[in-house]
Amino acid sequence: MPNPNYPPNGPGPNPNIPPSPGNPTSPSNPAIPSNVQPQYITSTGGLYGLYGAMMAPYLNTTNGYPYVIIYDPSNFNCEEAGEYDFRQEIPVVNQMPQEGRNVSCHLIILKYRELGVATFSVNVTVYNRLTDTFSTRSIIVNIQFVKGRTFPDKRIHTRYIGLKPLITGERPQVTLTFNANSGPWSVTSLTLCGNADELPQL
Amino acid sequence: MSKNYFEIKYNGSYKGVHVELPEDIIGREYSPYMVNMILKNGEIRPRPRQYNLLPGTPDKQPILIVTSFQDANNVYHTVAVTSTGLWQLNRNWTRSSPPTAARTWNLIGQYGVQPGPNFPVANSVFINKFFWTNGGPNLWQWDGITSPGAAALWLPSTFYIKGDVIIDSNKNLQVANNSGKSGTVAPVWGTTVGAQTPDSTGTPNPQITWTENGKNINSPVGYVNAGIVDATNGVTAGAYFLIELNSQLVMLNTVESAGGNFPQRIRWCPSGLPTIWDPNVNIGAGFIDELDVADNILGAFTVGTTAFILRTNGISEMTSTGQGINPFALNHLWASDRGIGNVFPFGYAAYGPIGIFISSDDIYNVSLGGFKRIGGMARDAIYSDLAITTGFPIASIVPYYARNYVYNHYRLTIPQGNNSVSWVFSIEDEAWTKEYNSSKIFTGISRWSYIK
Question: Scanning A202, B221, B290, B447, which has the fewest C-beta atoms within 10 Å of its C-beta?
Answer without folding.
Answer: A202
